[in-house]
Write a structure and sequence with these properties.
Elements lengths: L10 E2 L6 E2 L23 H4 L2 H15 L9
């Protein structure tokens, strides 16, 4: 049951056979399927290396402090 009451609707992924909150149809796709089990879609942050994540954290910190971060300077 959701935190504030009400109902939550689930969908069943046709390929993975698991319930999910959203089904996706990426470019070139023919079926609406779940994110992880079927199309293996990943967020951009999941595709980067440890060095990419470090640079991302550093860039966010620089923006919070009012500066700009330029990798390679």
């Amino acid at each position: 049951m959701p935190t504030y009451g009400g109902l939550r609707w689930w969908m069943l992924c046709p390929r993975a056979g698991r319930r999910c909150g959203k089904l996706y149809l990426p470019n070139g796709g023919t079926l609406f399927l779940s994110r992880g089990g079927a199309y293996c879609l990943a967020y951009a942050s999941q595709n980067g290396s440890a060095m990419d994540r470090s640079h991302g954290r550093l860039a966010r910190l620089c923006r919070k402090m009012g500066g700009d971060y330029c990798y390679g300077r």
